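Example 3.2
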Amino acid sequence: MGALVLGHVLSTRKMTRTEEAAKPRRSAQAVLLPAASSALQAAFPPVHPVVKAHHMTVAVDPQGKTLALLATSLRRAVDLNVVAVVSDAKCQAAVVQIHKVDDATAGARDDDGGVPVPVENLVAHVTLSLAPNVPAVYSNELLERVLLNGNGFLMDWDGTYKDGSAVSVRVPKEPLRLSAVLCLSDLWDEAEARCGAKKECGFCLFMKLGPCGDEFQKWEDCIESCKDSQEDFIDKCAQHTLALKGCVDVHPEYYYSLMDESSSSSSADASDEATADATAASDGELGALPNEPVLVIADETPMVPAGKAATVN
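Structure, written as tokens:
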């Protein structure tokens, strides 16, 4: 029976590959709240006609363990510190650093606000404005050229490319922090400025975002129908339960990666705690303080010493 279910799951996934390939690629983003987008544009007015000021990209088309980590962190508050704004004839982009939300000012917001994986781009940024027909991805090229060949992002400076076109860097005169929310591009509700359905549980969202989202949805629909009809869900939903289990077993890189990591971490913590207790006892101490949890956030934006002017390749 299990082999039949597994074969059905695999054939179903194969049949939908063409459809999935036709869908636009999803990306993980720290989406600016409306007030933050307005604040960025007020501090640095757009210099090109196509205005963005919308989000910082965390990862493009995340899969497997990366997607699993992101799925458990959606809706978290993320603060972005604006380091500098870089512009040339094609693009204007704000270089940002991710800031852990302060406990004292967080209020109802999540107090461990960073992202669980490093930002993919070499320079974390928010595209502010673009010239017509220039793709947003050009921001990466602009910032990488300035970082690798220019004077960096530490102070105001102006320079030229070898072709004679100008590039400039401007640093905020006052600290500029932008409030954002971690989300996936296909879940962001622009009208409501929120990530996903308001009442959707975190576990349900995690399951639906994975490669077995369709199977989970069918299983969930079946369970809900049994609640309405007072039927025995164990019998009625058995086929959907087996299909979901078969699919989950085929994709351990998503569904089991966090559980394996949690299990390994718990074992390591237990071992470390036992060692620390033994050491403290032998030294005659009262005992070791428990380790504080560490959240992995994006690497700091790389910078190089700044000067007054530069020639950029």
